[in-house]
User: Fold this.
Amino acid sequence: MALKIYGIPRSRGIRNIWMAYELGIDFELVEVAPGESGSRKPEYMAINPNGHVPFIDDDGLVLWESMAINLYLARKHGGPVAPQNVGEEGQTMAWTAWALTGVEPHAAQIMYNASMLPEPERDPAKVTAGLAAIVAPLAVLEAALAKGGGYLVGGRFTAADLNVYGAVFYLRFAPQALAGKPAIAAWMEACRARPAAQKAFALRGE
Ligand SMILES: N[C@@H](CCC(=O)N[C@@H](CS)C(=O)NCC(=O)O)C(=O)O
Assistant:
């Protein structure tokens, strides 16, 4: 088996597992937990000096960054999830960069401070700030989905949707952020209902 995905389903690795299932490719999941018990161990840092998961080794080609990995896998294996032309490729890269810069930092701040951190370490002011910062990007996403027939690129589910979903998904800890956003709600439901998504999230028991 050529492709190895390092990480666990309860990490950003879920994005790559989902993509591998979308593409119908075989992979080996090498379970490395985030942090001291896994991704910060010297033997793992030797292959990914960032100390993060996910990470892939595709027959000797190594990559980190979950969303870049998805772009690579889609480009390599093709099919409807992949960009079909240079225009779609540009749009997919734009949505991916947008998710990473405009959504993920705020959504992660909300997720950590609303739920993931031990209670004494949570800062409600950071949730409030994150919610304020996410208003404008979510308005952009809502309008794009309403205009694009429910998906971001080419009127069908693609790597752009998977990558953006990967960041917007963090807002499940603050459902008020998504209130009054029917296009986003329908899109999230459609993404999550995909057989590949169900198979991936089942690995998390979800
Ligand atoms: N931008 C990176 C972020 C990777 C990242 O921060 N991963 C987390 C797990 S979701 C991690 O490995 N944290 C453990 C650590 O930094 O020690 C990506 O999307 O792959």
User: Anything to note?
Assistant: The CA atoms of residues 25 and 69 lie 14 Å apart.
